[in-house]
Amino acid sequence: MTGLQFDxxxxxxxxxxxxxxxxxxxxxxxxxxxxxxxxxxxxxxxDDLRSPAGVDLLVGNAVPAGADPVAQAYAGHQFGGYSPxxxxxxxxxxxxVITAADDRVDLHLKGSGxxxxxxxxxxxxxxxxxxxxxxxxxxxxxxxxxxxxGLAVVATxxxxxxxxxxxxxxxxxxxxxHLRVGTFQYAASLDDPSMLARLIDHSISRHAPSAxxxxxxxxxxxxxxxDVQADLIARWMSIGFIHGVMNTDNMTISGETIDYGPCAFxxxxxxxTVFSSIDHGGRYAFGNQPQIGLWNLARLAETLLAFIDPxxxxxxxxxxxxxxxxxxxxxxxxxxxxxxxxxxxxxPTDDAELADDLxxxxxxxxxxxxxxxxxxxxxxxxxxxxxxxxxxxxxxxxSWLERWQxxxxxxxxxxxxxxxxxxxxxxxxxxxxxxxxAATTGDLAPFTTLLDVLQQPFTEQSGRHxxxxxxxxxxxxxxxxxxxT
Length: 485
Ligand code: AMP
Ligand code: MG
What we know:
It is built from 19 helices and 12 strands.
């Protein structure tokens, strides 16, 4: 009835990496938000999904025709410590949907009840964190960052016990797959080499088809994942995004951002910024993200060695060679992104030193990251005041502006073009908090407005100035984010 066309290659090809399972029954489902445009991309009629039968499908009360729901198994390094068996403790892969454009995407429920991987967890999710994931991933999508997507959030009618009783909800996620570095770690830990062989083939066919005909397909797969992750993390770094929990189970093979638990946007520029309440050592601080990306990729490489070459030393040498390229690939991608943010025609030959030096000025002055980059458009038009008022009389701003104007001399982009890459609106922590607090008490209006603002992050919207403003200082200094809520 919904028009969704299911297929289940994960289930057909990767027996051993999942448990067949069904969602618990939600007593009183209520659709809180639906992504009409994404529903249409999937080939579904949004009105059908809004009907009682559609909502039953979205919340997990009814299994759609053709779906074969499973809880996926994976392992993972969490904050550097290895957990051999994590898996979907409160989530299900309903199946793969063949989209209107003939792409294959996963349709996934989060908060749909305990599974065989639940360990001590209750299998549930509260409404506010599920709305948070929806909001953050849709904001990231609008910002042009590869990401898993939000199709819907459905309140279940249940209460969830956290510090207090909270309304429960299911988040409906769409992703090009849910294959993670941790999926490879889990497959590698099984007493069955064919499991990993099948996972490699499956991953290549979904995410790196050209690797199939490479001389060493497993090495080519590693290479492809290194590329997409270098690109992804460079994009995060270009917009001030802190993922917050870059465990290997939260890093995709597809190169999409996944798991929006404790993520947050940085306001005042400081590479040491950490918001997550459990990240005491600052392992996943803003400035550490490229190194952690590489560390995770090394864990992926370890699982692939036997498939790269039967000789261990040769395999290690080949994999290490690719991993060693990560910093260069990351830096090249970051420099390109920064050059466009600075409105330069090309990456400067001094390897983006100009961008590094602006960041140093922002750090020194405690300026707001998003506002500072946005203010460069005015400066490009001859009005340096907005940037100067953000950085104050910090040393180095005069000489930086001079060098920047000189670098812009040849064929640089206009203020309008710069506005198309430097967002005016990002999901600022105080705005997100305000919207979620209201939603928890039943008032969805602030959430709906914020979501609407964030759909067009590069376009100034009249009457919405407060959405571009940094948080009050007392809010920012005490703000914390949480995992697994
Ligand atoms: P995350 O921090 O969301 O990446 O989750 C890490 C692991 O904990 C995954 O295996 C989740 O499925 C599991 N998990 C998180 N919250 C719950 C919960 N409430 N019930 C069961 N499993 C959970
Ligand atoms: Mg996770």
